[in-house]
Specification:
The longest helix has 29 residues. α1 packs antiparallel against α2. The protein has a domain of 43 residues. The protein contains two helices and no strands. By secondary structure, the chain is mostly helical. The model has no long low-confidence stretch (mean pLDDT 77).
Amino acid sequence: MAKKDFAPVVENKYRKRLPTILHTEDEVTSLTDTGSIALFTILAFSLALILIMKKDTIPPQMRRMLALVAVVLVSCAFFLIVFSLIGTG
């Protein structure tokens, strides 16, 4: 499946081309992935922190299920962080 152009550029010899921050699709994709990974990591750790802070007010059955979900999400966040660091270096 071919990648789509994010911002098609119309070449005009009478108009100066404005400088852009991102020049290729790969840079746009990696920036989007990095932002998604950062957002996912923040949300996973936030859920874990909220569960730790409010553990006394959550019913035991729901607490167990939410704790398992939080452990899975935090584990995935760690994996994504390590994977993105290995991919950059």
